[in-house]
Amino acid sequence: MTRNFTTFFKSTLTITITFIFNFMVFAQQPNDCQFAVTVCGNSDFTLDVNGSGTQELNSSNSCSGQENNSIWLKVNIATDGTLAFTLTPGSSSINEDYDFFIFGPNASCGNIGQAIRCSTTNPAAANQGNNLTGLNTTDPATNEGPGADGDSFVSAIDALAGESYFIVIDRPIGNSPFSINWTGTATFPEGPSNPLLSNPNSTILPNINICDDLAPYDDTIREFDLSQLSQDIINGEGDVSVSYHLSESDANINANALGDVFNNTTSSQNIFVRIENTTTDCFIINNFTLNVTALTNFNQPNDYEICDNDTDGNDQNGLATFDFNNVSQEIIEGINNINYDISYYSSQANAESLTSPLPLIYTNTAPGSTEIFARIEDLDLGCIGFTSFNATVLAKPIANDVSLIQCDEDGIPEGYTIFNLTEAAVDITNNISETTIEFYLSQVDAENQNDPIDGTSFENFFNPQIVYARVTNTNSGCVNFSEISLEVSTTSSNNASIELCDTDGLEDGFMEFDLDTINNDVLAGIPSDLILTYYETYLDALIETNPLNNLYTNTVAYNQTIYARVENSNACYGISEIELSVYELPNIEISDERIYCENLAPSTTTLTGGVINDIPNNYSYLWSTGETTTEIEVDAPGTYTVSVTNSFGCSKDRTITVVASNIATITSIEVEDGLQNNTITILASGNGGNYEYALNDINGPYQNSNIFNNVLAGLYTVYVRDKNNCGIADQLVSVIGFPKFFTPNNDTENDFWQVSGVSTQFQSNSDIFIFDRYGKLIKKLDPLSAGWDGTYNGAQLPTNDYWFKVKLEDGRTLTGHFTLKR
Fold first, then answer.
1. Is residue 487 pLDDT above 90, yes or no?
2. Angle at 261 between CA 258 and CA 263, to 5 degrees
3. d(CA 297, CA 509)
4. What pLDDT is attached to residue 506?
5. Residue 26: its pLDDT value, please?
6. Which CATH number fits domain 304-394: 2.60.40, 2.60.98, 1.10.4030, 1.20.58?
7. Strand order across the 369-378 sheet
């Protein structure tokens, strides 16, 4: 790691110095005379100014200036010549304003006297083309300013060897740093050199890298003694001093020196070295980095876990033996060219103090987990590191030897059948969870996990036969082994059946069966205290998987065989067949509605049992009337029920509603006639009747509405028909109307004008009068005659409009006009 810093030497190199003032003692800042920065080697450099420090320019210059943001430079003259410079602000803005003041020769802090050169010209106010300032050999003035006065430059100084001058740079306006370039012929003393650096332009010393070998070992803080480094830098010179600082700023102003012996404060820390010529006060600054590291070049070991064993006579007590050589190998695995000594302890304190190391072959003294601390020492570098791990004895699962007895119910009594080995899991592990079990034909296969067998469906080939269980603790991975003895039984239990009618309302062949109702049938005549469990398939019963609930709905419609397994302590006694039957209900229409015409009494209506797609005589019946025939006759409205039963004894009920109806009674007919839109409204009543209506034709068409619109004048018969077929009622009706014109030309069409709707039954005693347009009576008509023929006293009247007046028999008087056309 490298860092740029200040060095002063005679060249044209521009050196960058940024002063950061964060010191508690204000007087230590270089914006005061006593902390002036000594300029050596005729170097050009860039500086910043920030803060005024102690105000030392009051009444000390003829340029009316004082300190705002200032920095003090001290110039020592090595050879005669002119002292001149150009100050360039970092910003080219004309508003960036720098002033300067020069005191000497050989002025002293606290007695600086009057400035021999100064400039406080404001470049913007003076309308300058730039914001440069300084000393040159062409300007005759020794001072200028403030504000618009001058051009920011004053005359150079003729300096003699041995003289010294203070230059105060001040920035009253702006915030950029500045660079200064020495343009005179006078030279400055050379700065010291660092004999450890062969390149005079370098400032970087080699880093110091060291392990933290002092307790506490993991804080990367330790003591450093740089006395020898100081002597190497001084190299026997009597006028050179060396100091160490935590910041470049401290090194520049020689503040807060660390001393040759000190403690670092961070694991990687930059140290700045001030090398000063005590005769000329010139100095250079070198730097290097202290890197303190804890010993971490090793692998973090995993927790050391081993399974409990019976080497101490007990494989369940949590005690076992560990070989820490395995841990040491893990710690250094893959790390080359190291020379480590690793030892183990029961605590961190013991590891740090080398107290009571543990043997490499270690037996824990208490079950569970023990934290072990490893001390790792680099024998070449002296670094010491520590780590820890848990030594844990993992629980070994319980694996008991068990036996299984299975039924031989396949009809071949050879002693071979199918076993569900997983049924023994509870007894093998004492029902302890967090274990898995695998099954093998031999102990060797179980140990090597070769060719596991299907534990849920294993068919034995010896009777009896032994198979082996490999039990694994799912948390620890530890294993144990046990034997399972298999034996085939030849005992048996009873078959049984349950029959139900399909009465759940769905009639789909599925019903819920209560299997408990046949427990006694299955267990009849066999020993007591046996366990009975039902299964959907024979294989399920054999290997004891998917037991059924006692309330079971069949999965095969109408007919299904399930199985009952009888056993004692996992020993099979017998497997029975259970026949489940769901019988269909009679296929009938469960509801019907019939009509009884009261006007046809004492006739009857026939009611049937409603059997569909079968012969009615195949069923038995019980009617709500008490009759048991396939059909009955009723002569009164009401609700009748019948229970229809098939040959399986399954019944279904049918309900028939007999509704009363009657032929219509026409109570009135309302006619609105003599209008553009003549209407007939029929009012009818009847017990339970549901009626429809037609005009003139008994066969219809019929309409549901009892109102007829746009009826032409004339005589009509209205018909009211009962929709329940109880009969048709009828009645004559007249609609009075008047032709709009007539054509008495003997063509048999419209030869007469007469009032329509009049007959011997309707309005026969009416009076009809015809007038001409002047009100002259032309004709009085007989309402039952053919009508007016268009003549008056035997002469034909001309085409024209004529008026009529009709006094109807019902008391109404109607008037209007019509046209006679020739």
1. no
2. 75
3. 77
4. 92
5. 30
6. 2.60.40
7. 304-307, 384-394, 369-378, 340-345
In angstroms, the CA 315 to CA 309 distance is 4
**Is cis: bond before 798, omega within 30 of 0?**
no
Q: What is the pLDDT of residue 402?
A: 86
Q: Give the distance, in angstroms, between the CA of residue 141 and the centroid of all CA atoms in the same chain.
A: 80
Q: Do residues 194 and 12 touch, judged by C-beta distance below 8 A? A: no
Nearest 10 degrees: Cα torsion 596, 599, 600, 601 = 80
Amino acid at position 213, single letter? D
State the Rg of the chain over Cα: 64
- 137 pLDDT more than 50: yes
Residue range 208-293, CATH number? 2.60.40
Top pLDDT among 568 and 474 is at 474
**CB-neighbour burial class of residue 133 (10 A; exposed 0-12, middle 13-18, buried 19+):** buried
- Residues 6 or more apart whose CB falls under 8 angstroms from that of 365 comprise 319
Please state which CATH class domain 31-182 belongs to.
mainly beta
Dihedrals φ, ψ of 265, to 5°? -115, -20
User: Which of 2.60.40.10, 3.30.70.1350, 3.40.190.10, 3.40.50.10240 would CATH assign to domain 591-661?
Assistant: 2.60.40.10
**Mean pLDDT for all residues in the chain:** 87
Q: Convert the pLDDT of each residue in 65-82 to its tens digit.
A: 999 999 999 999 999 999
Q: Which of these CATH numbers, 2.60.40, 1.20.120, 3.40.630, 3.30.450, describes 496-583?
A: 2.60.40
Is there a contact between 428 and 471 (Cβ–Cβ < 8 Å)?
yes
Q: Mind listing the pLDDT tens digit for each residue in 345-380?
A: 999 999 988 999 999 999 998 888 999 999 999 888
